[in-house]
Design brief:
Blueprint (H helix, E strand, L loop, with lengths): L1 H13 L5 H83 L5 H70 L8 E6 L2 E7 H4 L9 H14 L5 E8 L14 H19 L7 E5 L11 H4 L1 E8 L2 H8 L1
Parallel strand pairs: 3-4
Antiparallel strand pairs: 1-2, 2-5, 3-5
Helix pairs in contact: 2-3, 3-5, 3-8, 5-6
């Protein structure tokens, strides 16, 4: 990687035409960068979609918990009502038995009728007792399901809360490390669970150049040192340009190449001057197509370092 950049810099200084082999190597390098960008953009979109799915499932589970609580309360009321009716039926049965004893000497028809009524009451009492037992069983099942759903919601909320806390802490750490570059074209902010460090081109590069200036190099090194040792991150370095077309016949020949080469220059400084894990880094170029201010070209010429925590624990819980 270092040798390729050396050749590119020499080519820019000499202003000569690039030999075919080196040009092809550069094209291959650009293709690799584009493929790697595509892979990380796909990965980023997938993680964002899965995070939104997790948050949606947590909201659905919370609604289920509210519904289960309501169902549990309703079943409890039905259970108590059935208990009262059951006791009333038992009392009425006892009363009928007493009446039956009193009319044992009555005529057979009256006795048969009383027995029939008593049997009907006994059957009704048994039916209510069965309904009471079924309601009690359903109530217990609802309570178990309610406890399980509450636990799942609690686990999801704890993981999301830990992630948000970690992002806030990392944002503060990065902002503290880059405090010396305030009002110099550097901004740190948190959006959608990710940290965006935006460095204007004036802090990093001369016009049309891919070589990072001394002041910009200090900022990049401080940023890399703030996150080195934390392998639970994914870091994408994006190069952005304005809409002004490049007129040079040598490389970079257009804004796509310029944005890619600038982002790879930043990644090289990170890996060569700190112990940051290269496996969590990726470099990409977005040319002129993602401006932040259509009326201010200087703001659009920038490097954005996007730092996102890995969400493996959350996705494992969802998959379970």
């Amino acid at each position: 990687m270092r040798s390729i950049f050396g050749v590119l810099v020499m080519a820019f200084v000499m202003g000569s035409c690039v030999p075919a082999k080196k040009y092809n190597d550069l094209l291959a390098k650009e293709q690799n960068c584009a493929e790697e960008l595509k892979k990380y953009k796909t990965s980023s979109l997938d993680y964002e979609a899965r995070l939104k799915t997790a948050q949606a499932r947590a909201e659905i589970m919370q609604k289920d918990v509210v519904q289960l609580k309501a169902d549990t309360s309703t079943l409890g009321n039905k259970y108590r009502a059935l208990q009262a009716k059951y006791k009333q039926s038992v009392s009425m049965g006892e009363s009928f038995e007493e009446q039956l004893d009193k009319i044992k000497d009555s005529d057979a028809k009256h006795l048969a009728r009383m027995r029939s009524e008593l049997e009907a009451k006994i059957i009704e009492t048994q039916r209510k007792e069965d309904a009471l037992m079924a309601a009690e069983k359903e109530l217990k099942n609802k309570q178990i399901l309610l406890a399980e759903r509450e636990q799942r919601v609690k686990e999801l909320e704890e993981i999301i809360s830990r992630q948000e806390t970690a992002v806030k802490a990392l944002e503060m750490k990065i902002a503290q490390a880059l405090r010396g570059f305030e009002n110099k074209g550097l901004k740190v902010e948190e959006r959608n669970g990710k940290i965006y460090v935006s460095l204007e081109a004036k802090l990093l590069f001369a016009s049309g150049s891919t070589k990072v200036e001394a002041e910009g190099k200090k900022a990049i090194i401080e940023l890399a040192r703030a996150v080195e040792g934390d392998d639970d991150l994914e870091i994408i370095v994006e190069g952005h340009t304005d809409t002004d077309a490049l007129s040079s016949a040598s490389h970079p020949k257009n804004n796509w190449e310029l944005s890619v080469l600038r982002s790879t220059s930043v990644v090289s400084i990170m890996t060569e001057n700190t112990n940051i894990n290269p496996m969590i880094l990726s470099a990409s170029g977005r040319s002129e197509y993602h401006p932040i201010d259509p009326n201010d070209k200087a703001k659009n010429r920038r490097i954005e370092v996007i730092i996102a925590p890995k969400l493996d624990a959350l996705f494992e819980l969802i998959s379970e």
